[in-house]
Amino acid sequence: MSNPMPTATTLNSTKHQRINIMEKLGDYWTLCVLVVIILVFGILAPSFFSAFNFLSTTTSATEILLLAIGETFVIITSGIDLSVGAVLGLSGITAGMAMQALGNDALSLIVGILVGLLTGLIFGLVNGFVVAKMNITPFIATLGTMGIASGITFLLSNGADITALPTPLTSFGSGNIASFISYPVIVTALLCVISGIALAKSRFGVHTYAIGSNQEAARRTGINVPRHIIKIYGISGLMAGASGIIVAARFASASPISGQNDELNAIAAVVIGGASLFGGRGNILGTVVGSIIIAVLASGLVIVNVQAYWQTVAVGMIIIAAVFVEQLRHRNK
Amino acid sequence: MRGDQPLLQVSHVRKHYGAIQALRDINFDVYPGEVVGLVGDNGAGKSTTIRILSGVEVPDGGDVIFEGSKVSLKGPLDAQMLGVETVYQDLALALHLDVASNLFLGREELQRGWRGRFGFLNRKEMMRQAEEILVQMNVQIKDIRQKVGELSGGQRQSIAIARATSRGAKLILLDEPTAALGVQESAKVLELIKKLRSQGVAVILISHTMPHVLEVTDRIVVLRRGQVGGILTTKDTTLEEVVQYITGAKSQHSEKEGVLA
Ligand SMILES: Nc1ncnc2c1ncn2[C@@H]1O[C@H](COP(=O)(O)OP(=O)(O)OP(=O)(O)O)[C@@H](O)[C@H]1O
Ligand SMILES: [Mg+2]
Fold it and tell me: Residue A254's domain spans which residues?
């Protein structure tokens, strides 16, 4: 009865019913996978369709989704940012320490948020600099800063949570509209829209795709490639900072272990969303769907009484399936 | 066609790589709207000459004179500023982007007003101009929203050339543009080169395919071991004669400075 396999079987059968269906569904097939997963959980456990579950699932999705937005930009340029999870944790701690020091008022809130965002931005810019100016491959560069960020997190916090956060922050974290849409979800949605438009409609977006598609071509047409790459990693860091603050707000506590392993889920979300690690391909809508798939698996498996560890198993299988299907689609063209 | 001032003069240009003297003494001119073939055996120095003219390499000595004044090209952007565009062998297109985005890469049209300041693209205007450029160049592409990666080699070559022209190039450098193409696709690219000439754009064409060179060029500069072995007027020469110059059986110069045989 309680069986995590339905997701995988659904995928398999779709895959075998000839690639034609894939062609027709085009870029929306992951969306269909999401709908099927939701329906399966809803049938297995009707409480899955409750307003409360919607609220909590979407709210918990924001953590990965915010990281995945930045990661989308990075992956489109054919880079990778392994540091986002660690930077999330560090940003939460630096923001928390600033707010703890300043007390429980509006000024403390504002300064804390700025400190958190700045922490993320600085790490992002450093990543960009190391990648673009020092010519270190993104994997190694961000593996390095990941270690640096998580080390500093524990040095600063001594491993302890910071719970003395300003009330406006924590009430934002737990706030919602009609017990249905939480404030963190609203902020995240807004950032999705802005970044989605930037990627699809702006010069910045075209240059991002161009760099991932053919960096040499981008350089020869006069695009300042290093500067663009630094900005891209800056965005990724900034999103990690934002995610760190929102996680602290939601749990009314900044924890040094926040964000651990999140980078893997963020990368998974982007890849499930149709991006190519070779660059040039990916979009925010796909990333949103990918992030929600991961969040739905986490909450759904718990609701149907399956051990939560199955989530990583299911996500792992979906990543492989997603990449396989993308390969089929692009080979068929 | 002659009579006016040369667009480009290459004068006593030299370049060595370590012990290899890639270019010994290169001299030739290109007039506005003229198609000049640059031919020669492997390693004769054709690509090196192009790299110097496109600003990728700096010569050891000699002058590059553009529109009457001596220029020093420090990078590809310097050459582009002057109106010298290079279509590279690997084309330098972004395969994941559509035709219009590739044509405008690096100098996109933005919307007016505040949206432009935020970097919003004016897709409509770019599509319209792209359509215009392609029609003008007689490049047939079904849908300019198609990704370049989905197009044929010839279409890609055409887009790369059209992009170079649309940037107001006065001189376009083509390094083996038909090397990877089939018969029909090559024919299209050759048509495009003739089109460029009719629009007053000068072209330097590198090719190992002599019939192509004889078909589209006005003059042929034959390089041999880093020197100009001969400059031929296309309509007065034959394939046999060009080959004789390439192999060194014929030469317009008494070989000076003891070239090793
Ligand atoms: N970057 C370089 N480093 C060292 N030697 C080089 C370099 N580029 C060219 N050469 C040498 O300079 C000489 C001229 O090379 P070039 O590439 O200009 O020849 P080419 O006429 O374009 O030949 P092909 O028809 O094979 O393309 C050759 O001997 C080549 O080995
Ligand atoms: Mg060559």
Answer: 48-331
